[in-house]
Amino acid sequence: MGQNTIYLDKVASTNDYLRELLSNFKPLAEGTAILAEEQFQGKGQRGSSWVSEPGKNLTTSILLKPHFLPIAEQFALSATIAIATVNWLKSKTEQPVAVKWPNDIYVNSKKITGILIENKLKGSKIDHAIIGIGVNINQI
User: Fold this and answer.
1) Is the pTM of the predicted complex or chain greater than 0.85?
2) Band of residue 2 on the pLDDT scale cut at 50, 70, 90
3) Which pLDDT tens digit goes with each residue over 38-88?
4) Tens digit of each residue's pLDDT (9 = 90 or more) over 4-52
5) Nearest residue to 14 (alpha-carbon basis) of 119, 127, 133
6) Is residue 27 reached through a cis peptide bond, with omega within 30 degrees of 0 on the bond before it?
7) How many CB atoms sit inside 10 A of residue 35's CB?
């Protein structure tokens, strides 16, 4: 995980960038991560946007290949990512951390994190998942 990390100064969307890499340079290693200093067209659920100030946030997208996971169990992936993110945040703060299912994380009752998972399906399984995580860590 994270052995292939690409750091960008500025990008429209880390999810879109990773998707483009997948379409142009297949195969990419599972765990490939895109991190950006500035993301100016971040995406949220149902077409909403994720707003983040340059240099004040963690904006990343990670490629996972959960071929074993049936389509009907996609929520298990979402829950795992949310819980892992909560555990990481709890290691960084003493403030209360909570999930608003399925994709928002709050610290001290303020939304600090959004998770956007975009799955590519193949038959009855998930071929790959682009996991976008935005953490407004310095905007609270």
Assistant:
1) yes
2) low
3) 888 766 666 666 667 777 788 999 999 998 889 999 899 999 999 999 999
4) 999 999 999 999 999 999 988 768 899 999 999 988 876 666 666 666 7
5) 133
6) yes
7) 17
CA distances from 23 to 60, 70, 82, 117 (A): 19, 23, 27, 17
Distance from C-alpha of 73 to C-alpha of 12, rounded to nearest angstrom: 30
Domains of the chain plus CATH, in order, are 5-135 (3.30.930.10)
Tally the C-alpha atoms within 13 A of residue 107's C-alpha that lie toward its C-beta.
20
Those residues with Cβ within 8 angstroms of residue 123's Cβ, 6 or more apart along the chain or in another chain: none
Total length of the chain: 140
- Strands 5-11, 33-39: pairing kind: parallel
Query: What is the C-alpha separation between 38 and 58, in angstroms, rounded?
Result: 9
Give the C-alpha separation, 18 to 28, whole Å: 10
Going by the DSSP 8-state scheme, the letter that residue 32 receives in this structure is -
**Structure token pair of residue 49:** 């946007």
